[in-house]
Amino acid sequence: MAVSLFTPSISSFNNIAPPPHFSPTPSHNASDFKFRRRSYCRVHRKTVSFSSSPRLPVSLRFLVYGRRNLANFICSAADKPEISSTAKIRSEVLSPFRSVRMFFYLTFIASGTLGGLIATTQLLGALANSSRADEVPDILEGLGVDFGAVALFAFLYFRENNAKNAQLARLSREESLSNLKLRVDQNKVIPISILRGIARLVICAGPESFIIEAFKSSEPFTERLLERGVLVVPLATDVTTLNFEFDDREEVKDITTKRKRLWRLTPVYMTEWSAWLDEQKKLAGVTSDSPVYLSLRMDGRVRGSGVGYPPWNALVAQLPPVKGLWSGLLDGMDGRVL
């Protein structure tokens, strides 16, 4: 449950009395209730933190009562969520020398700027003194070199910084994706991150008719998709429950078992899935009602996406099997990262 405050100041809480039935007891456990740790609002200009504690004034504790307990939350004026430390660490691992390059770019910019200022003062002195007129061409040449160096390294720095921000944004989206939940069977729900290094997920998102057609078109590739560690996540946008028709005849029992395994994963907490999917469509410039697919690498990063049905034949042709003689050498051959 997200907790958002839209009050002008914290002091206004002191004028509000708690409900008459509020009676906090030590038996209330914060583990029974899940609160979103961060809520971003635009009213406050500074970060305010609250934590559940016996010393918390009653005027604040009235916000939760009965079987609820106040967990830590933050109200911030930030326009967008901050990048997590995990995403920053992954960015450093993927681009270990980027910070070094950016440091040297800044150093060269500072050096060129200082040299340009010195050359400018020399130019002004030469222009003011006719006896030094022969020095002007050399000073202008040095000034041009300094300004050219500043422009070049400024361009390189901003390009590197833009690449860093784009990578952080992508890693942050991938981290959000890894936290989404899947139902493996009736009694087991796991986050996507558990499947890293185990399966290559293909997310099919669209109306029920789109999912059913993708299900039917995958039948000829079932065995080869499973050999490559592919598991499909059907995300229906217009129904809450999907009913696939499997052939239960005894002579095709083996292929039916494999098809059930290929399509066994079910998204849960559809609000979170829909919010994540809408964000991806917005960033890609795709309309919200378009059926799409996303193909993930073995490490959980997005390797391919598009509007329409998943290219089952291309997945079979491009992805190496997860078992066999060459599996260890080809584990990273999942395709480039988007």
TrEMBL record:
Keywords from the named record: Membrane, Transmembrane, Transmembrane helix
Entry coiled-coil feature ranges: none
Transmembrane segment boundaries: 103-127, 139-158
InterPro entries the UniProt entry points to: LPA1-like
One Pfam family, short name: DUF3493
Keyword Membrane: yes
Protein name, UniProt field: Protein LOW PSII ACCUMULATION 1, chloroplastic
Organism of origin: Cucumis sativus (Cucumber)
